[in-house]
Write a structure and sequence with these properties.
This protein is mainly α and about 525 residues long. It has helices at about 1-10, 15-40, 50-55, 60-70, 75-85, 90-115, 120-125, 130-165, 170-190, 190-220, 225-235, 255-270, 275-280, 285-315, 320-325, 335-340, 345-385, 395-415, 425-445, 455-470, 500-515. About 70% of the residues lie in helices and about 0% in strands.
């Protein structure tokens, strides 16, 4: 009954039947041009060094734009703006954390590049020899990557189904599979140089699009930011708490310690993503890495500022109840806003909706490809090519392409299988694993000479175990209305994310494991400063 009412009221059809044909046609043309561009960008050079790091030849400015593009994902574009539209201050705080995360990466960027490594396995091996650290790195990379693929593809399916006016679960699953197949075509020929061009081009396109949408919304309130914010508060689902902490239903009532835990996870987790580390490691040198990251900080700050404006504008123009009726997490907010800032029947409205749809496709295309490519590089370089029998360069490239295809297929399959479940907690889990298993290990590796193999393994595997256990027994999995299983309750861990416990525990485990010399302390791996 609810779905029928929403369909009849037009809430789930922001495009409208008259405009849908031109929007879909233009969108399909754009997809075709993107795929054609991707194939022309595919490098004819099949050397692993060229595919993995573009021979470290990217200029600081260009790589800075590409690094900023890594932060423009379909989750940030739709979920972050939707969270601001629905939950006000809580969504705003999360967006600010994402910018701070790049500041953390800036502190470590030069160290990462000067190490000469480009995968987590290489970084973990700075103070620990053998296959164990590289295997641990590959495990962590997969645990971070696969949940992100599932959530990204699911969000893509929801937004695509909304654009074509078919919001049913079946249509969303079909769109998820279709988008996943298109992304797989891109990823199958991707290398770092090719993806860098698309990432860099995505940044100005996204910034201009968000700026236009925000200005059109501001025009509705006589160019008054105060008037727009007041309307956002009035049109929200809870005006009395919209600009206060605790409105987000996932974390409401969990207390200030939960807020601290969430901040830790978002800031440290987003800084330690494997695909961001690969991007920084591809810089020409340590100085270029810092410069690229500094440029990315400025661009990402501008992106999130516009995203915040878009979120408040969506609440003011569309209204929190209408946005929440389409999707409980607000992922439809940008599309609904683009549909509402211009009059129905106008050509400009069709163009604006089409541009938003194209930006969304670019975000899916680049984000999923970058995450998948980094994971495939880790599997190839850290595990699959380190067998007893040496692998040729051609063999390494074949293994890389196979790993990419396997990851894409697995991500699409899992995303379609869990589409009807609230799996947004997987993003928090991925960020928690990155914050817990990567950040302490890198800090110790770069700044503590006494850190050894045992400390690394204790920190990584102990932190991973803690993240898994605490997430499983948290309110995100059971015991709350937004949990994976809301009808059962085994949530003895009281916080939304594991960071408050898991990150300090990983540091402690790394120290305890290294306090007593390991049996292989004399065979510690040399620091790879000369590998370029």
């Amino acid at each position: 009954m609810t779905t029928s009412f929403l369909l009849s009221s037009g809430v789930l059809d922001p495009v409208g039947s008259a405009a849908r044909g031109p929007v879909i046609s233009a969108f399909l043309v754009f997809i075709g041009l993107c795929l054609l561009w991707v194939f022309t960008l595919a490098s004819p050079d099949e050397r692993p060094a060229s595919l993995y790091t573009a021979d470290r030849s990217l200029s600081p400015g260009f790589n800075g734009f590409a690094l900023a593009g890594e932060y423009v994902t379909v989750v940030t574009l739709f979920a972050a703006s939707g969270a601001i539209a629905l939950f006000g201050y809580d969504g705003l705080a999360s967006a600010v954390d994402s910018v701070i995360a790049l500041g953390v990466l800036l502190l470590l960027a030069r160290k990462i590049r000067d190490s000469g490594q480009y995968t987590l396995g290489g970084l973990f091996s700075l103070r620990a020899s053998g296959r164990g650290p590289r295997t641990a790195a590959a495990v962590v990379t997969l645990v971070i990557t696969v949940p992100l693929l599932v959530v990204q593809l699911r969000a893509a399916g929801i937004s695509a189904a909304l654009l074509i006016g078919m919001p049913s679960d079946t249509a969303q699953v079909a769109c998820t599979i279709l988008m996943g197949c298109l992304v797989a075509c891109f990823a199958a020929v991707a290398d770092l140089r090719g993806t860098s061009f698309v990432q860099a081009a995505k940044v100005p396109v996204t910034l201009v699009t968000l700026a236009v949408v925000a200005l059109l919304a501001l025009r509705k309130f006589s160019w008054s930011p105060a008037g727009l914010l007041s309307a956002a508060v009035e049109q929200s689902a809870a005006p009395e708490g919209y600009l206060s902490r605790g409105l987000w239903a996932h974390t409401a009532g969990l207390g200030p310690l939960n807020t601290i835990s969430d901040h830790i996870v978002v800031i440290l987790g987003m800084a330690m993503m494997p695909h961001l580390i690969l991007r920084v490691a591809a810089s020409r040198d340590g100085r270029s890495a810092r410069r690229s990251t500094s440029i990315a900080v400025g661009l990402t700050g501008a992106f999130y500022l516009l995203l915040i404006m878009t979120g408040f504008a969506a609440a003011a123009v569309v209204g929190g109840e209408r946005i929440g009726a389409v999707d409980a997490n607000g992922q439809a907010a940008p599309i609904l806003l683009a549909s509402g800032v211009l009059g129905h029947g106008s050509t400009a409205r069709v163009v604006l909706i089409t541009v938003v749809a194209c930006v969304a496709f670019l975000a899916v295309l680049t984000a999923v490809t970058s995450v998948t490519f980094a994971a495939a590089v880790s599997l190839t370089d850290d595990v699959l090519t380190r067998a007893k029998r040496p692998v040729t360069e051609t063999g390494q490239v074949w293994i890389l392409r196979t790993a990419v295809a396997g990851l894409c297929l697995g991500g699409v399959t899992l995303s379609a299988a869990v589409h009807r479940y609230p799996v947004e907690f997987l993003v928090t889990f991925s960020l928690g694993v990155a914050a817990t298993c990567v950040f302490p290990a890198l800090v110790y590796s770069f700044f503590w000479p006494g850190f050894d193999r045992r400390g690394l393994m204790w920190s990584v595997y102990g932190g991973l175990t803690l993240c898994t256990v605490l997430t499983f027994f948290s309110p995100t999995v059971s015991g709350s209305a937004y949990a994976l299983w809301p009808d059962v309750a085994f949530d003895w861990y009281p916080f939304h994310s594991p960071g408050l416990v898991s990150v300090p525990a990983a540091f402690l485990l790394g120290w305890l494991g290294s306090a007593k010399p390991s049996p292989d302390a004399g065979r510690r791996a040399p620091r790879a400063h000369t590998r370029v």
